[in-house]
Amino acid sequence: MSEAVAAVPRLRTRFTELLGIEHPVVQGGMMWVGRAELAAAVSEAGGLGVLTALTQPTPADLAREIERTRALTDKPFGINLTILPAITPPPYEEYRRVIVDCGVTIVETAGSSPAPHMEFFARHGVRVVHKCTSVRHAVKAERLGVAAVSIDGFECAGHPGEDDVPGLVLVPAAADALTVPFIASGGFTDGRGLAAALALGADGVNMGTRFLCSEEAPVAEAVKRRIVEASELDTRLVFRELRNTARVARNTVSEEVVRILADGGAFADVRPLVAGARGRRVFEDGDLEAGIWSVGLSQGLVRDIAPAGLLVERIVREAREVVERMHRAFAGTGGTRPA
């Protein structure tokens, strides 16, 4: 699908001014998905594209992916560095060294606290945007010195935390508590969502599921078609009993995981079902029943598979139209919704 649109004027917020981008639209740092073609397309359109560091098998591979991205755009892009406990953790120090050596100055951290990495990044002029799922964690991240926060509501794909607070409450609560710029994540797919996030006090939006269903996303076409066909009811929350909740697509595997854990099973009982290699097969082979795979409630609002750059332009244009319509309504000059 293609659609030509005129370039839209810049939409300035504290977040765009901080990072030197044109529009406050960020592509989520999705495992297996945040690669050069997608990140470059989003950045080239004026948003912030994000490479996912741990998608790359080694730090040297990340360096090559950064260079591939630079060959496609000269605009700013970021690197997602997800920090999680592991028996054999990835070589985080080597990944962060590659980020600095390659001259990337925007990093999105997620998972555990970014504290062990803050001094290194600050020393090299890297601005850290920390992703978290609660106001208390956002405030702690601000105290650690992050440049911005990405606040993830209960609607999101992946790990929404254990508080179950949706964006309509979480975003304004974050706005009341933070002084650094922040963007809203979870449930955002279009210009209505961007306008709403700005009205609630955010400085932009982060979108994963919407960009997962873009032409440049390096996943099988069957995955994208399923997102378009699915509704907001077609996700499942797994690992609730383990207090490691994750939102994934509803399929036979996620249903089985829910059943096993609800019946008193332990993680060892579902480990073979939730192996990352199985989820990767979904994205690469298009076998939607091969494993669990992350998708947000916002899939119910995704209607097409479109170029990522067009999505950025469309979202910003729609947000402007929403704001203008509301301005007319409050001004008493007519604000009825167009047919």
UniProtKB/TrEMBL annotation:
Protein name stated in the entry: NAD(P)H-dependent flavin oxidoreductase
Keyword vocabulary terms for this entry: Flavoprotein, FMN, Oxidoreductase
Pfam families: NMO
Domain of life: Bacteria
Top-level EC class as recorded in UniProt: oxidoreductase
Enzyme Commission number(s): 1.13.12.-
GO function terms (MF aspect): oxidoreductase activity
Xref: CDD domains: NPD_like
